[in-house]
Amino acid sequence: MRADGTDQTRLTYTPADEEDPDWSPDGTRIAFTSSRDGNEEIYTVEVGTEDPPALSRERRLTYSTAMDAIPAWSPDGTKIMFVSTRDGNPEIYVMEPDGSNPTRLTYSPANDGLDTHLWSPDGRRIAFVSERDSNLEVYVMASDGSGARNLTNNPAADDGPVWSPDGRDLLFISDRSGQEQIYRMRSDGSEPTPLTRGAADHIWPVWSPDGRRIALTSSRDKVSEIEVMDRDGSHPRRLTNRHAEEKWVSWEK
Asked: What whole-number distance in Å separates Cα of residue 225 and Cα of residue 247?
């Protein structure tokens, strides 16, 4: 659909669940998860340049009896990262955009990447969530899977990493204060700093394209509303006031 909500176009036509859509960097394809073949597999659909865009061929990329889900394009469009249980538990893999050469990146008996896995803006690193240290923690590794390192290392649950546009910082969600709050840290895990406080939950942070502001979901007024604040947590401002659930904000690029 358009940014104003008009011209909504249905992309898939099956009775199965279709979710986790992710645009290719060049805007010509969308990768997504589908359960149309009895278990979760990854597909792409080509999107034309017409206005509104026409859809063309769908293509199935993964073929396994396990779960293959949550595709994420690399910034240069040459790889698709995904999570698979084909080796017994959720692990992170990458493959070519046509589904060839699936390569396993993580090797752990715990769950890796099932909640979040994200490329850094330069495509050289991957931030992900793992339970390998007995609770949810934020990790980072090289794009080839080497050098995985725990960045948060806290007995609380740390989740939902989001790269800053310049790749220098990461936002994440933690309940280490008793409520889910948003923190910022350097991309090496140093200087973890709470950006939100109080009795309400603050979750799902999203950087503005220029990295100067952060949009988020807050429950400070008993229902989920959208707020925006400066990158250091100052000047929080509520954007919605409908007394209904408002979630999952995204900045226009």
From this structure: 7
Strand (E) or helix (H) holding 156:
none
**Domain residue limits, the chain:** 19-101, 105-243
pLDDT digit string (tens) for 144-169? 999 999 999 999 999 999 999 999 99
SS (H, E, C) 28-55: CEEEEEECCCCCCEEEEEEECCCCCCCE
- Top pLDDT among 25 and 220 is at 25
Closest of 79, 102, 101, 82 to residue 92, by C-alpha: 82
Place of tokens 């000047």: 235
Give the CB-side neighbour count of residue 239, counting CA atoms within 13 A.
14
Environment class of 176 (CB within 10 Å of its CB; exposed 0-12, middle 13-18, buried 19+):
middle
Amino acid making up residue 148: A
CA distance 234 to 85: 41
Residue 32 has pLDDT above 90, yes or no: yes
According to CATH, the superfamily of the domain at 105-243 is TolB, C-terminal domain (2.120.10.30)
pLDDT band (50, 70, 90) for residue 218: confident
The residue ranking higher by pLDDT, 52 or 58, is 58
